[in-house]
From TrEMBL:
Keywords: Membrane, Transmembrane, Transmembrane helix. It comes from the Bacteria. This is Diguanylate cyclase. The chain crosses the membrane at residues 12-28.
Length: 99
């Protein structure tokens, strides 16, 4: 259980840092201020949720399974948010057609 918690901390940092770098090094970060700050906030909150979600004081196998399910829920929610950000960015990018 501790192994799962320790190994999944890196993912939270990765998503927060990746979003920040994607936003800052975009073509026009100033025009994307709302989405940039909102994205940073979402990924930092999800990172904090991962770090604060500890398996302290769990004794029964049912409690441990519940903790593990919730922790994986956080991981999947973070992945979903990253995928949605990528999908929204892809649809917002104009396509160039050549004649």
């Amino acid at each position: 259980m501790d192994d799962t918690r320790i190994r999944t901390r890196l993912g939270g940092f990765f998503y927060a840092l990746a979003w920040l770098l994607t936003w800052v090094f975009s073509a026009a970060p100033g025009s994307l201020m709302v989405s940039g700050v909102l994205g940073c906030t979402v990924f930092v909150v999800l990172l904090a949720a991962r770090l604060l979600h500890r398996p302290d004081g769990l004794d029964s196998p049912e409690q441990l399974q519940c903790w593990l399910d919730r922790h994986w829920g956080l991981i999947l929610l973070t992945s979903l948010c990253w995928g949605q950000a990528h999908a929204l960015g892809y649809t917002a990018t104009p396509t160039v057609t050549r004649k």
